[in-house]
Amino acid sequence: MTPTLYHDGCNVCLDIARVLRTAMPGLAIVDLGLAPDAAFDAMALGVHDLPCLVVDGRVLPVAPHSVIGDVAAAHG
User: Fold this and answer.
1) What is d(CA 65, CA 27) in angstroms, rounded to the nearest whole number?
2) Residue 1's pLDDT is what?
3) CB neighbours of 34 closer than 8 A, spacing ≥ 6?
4) Per-residue pLDDT for 72 more than 70?
């Protein structure tokens, strides 16, 4: 499974995405502000807070400041 960063598209998340993209070549980055339907996939993986890194099935919150349910509710 490809390591994936899920985030809400805010400036803090965009900065984190830039840093992690450099540190982790091959990282998939999903901006839920641009792809809100992907929130349901992320929740199925166990993501609750954003931004969050999913690696080998492990959910690793990274400076969490947003709740994924808010993204899903706004678009579901």
Assistant:
1) 21
2) 78
3) 9
4) no
Whole-angstrom Cα distance, residue 68 to residue 47? 7
| Tokens at 33, concatenated | 């502000």
**HEC per residue, the chain:** CCCEEEECCCHHHHHHHHHHHHHCCCCEEEECCCCCCHHHHHHHHCCCEEEEEEECCEEEEEEEEEEHHHHHHHHC
- pLDDT digits 0-9 by tens, 42-67: 999 999 999 999 999 999 999 999 99
Which candidate, 37, 47, 36, places its Cα nearest to that of 5? Answer: 47
Place of tokens 């998340």: 13
First to last CA, the chain: 26
**Which residue type is seen at 4?**
T
What pTM did the predictor assign? 0.91
